[in-house]
Amino acid sequence: MRLFLFLTGFFYLAHTFHVSKTMVAYSEKEKSLQISVHLFIDDLEESLKNEGHTKLFICTEREAPQAEKHIESYLRKHLTFSVNNKSTPFTFVGKEGSSDMSAVWIYLEIPVSGKIKSINIKNSLLIGEFEDQKNLVHVVGPNKKEGTIIFANTKTEESLTFSP
To answer: What is the pTM of this model?
Structure first.
């Protein structure tokens, strides 16, 4: 019994913070923004459960057939992009479990025509569920210009500008 309590306590300590990370990289060759989102599976499932979607078993052999559809829908509500002041929906490319299966990597892509002058990001992922949620977004734009934004419940939108 003590071992069970110890292991349960250890897991709790291992995930006492709530953070997501997103990488946005402009590919000049592909003329697109390539986006990778990293979310802890238990946090994502909690958010989806609050929307009425239960027993999804994300990234397991028992994954529900509709799991990807619910993940994509959730992302469309909580992660949006505008390029050059024009709303630009993403294409859901796919997902995969992290090496330790505690998280999921989700891949998105946005085609871009012309030069990127600005990117506006709205990111409220998991913020409704976890008061301490932080969403880190690292952007590599045109000419390899880089920036990192931290989103939280007091800040869910930010714009980046790129000089010509």
So the answer is: 0.88
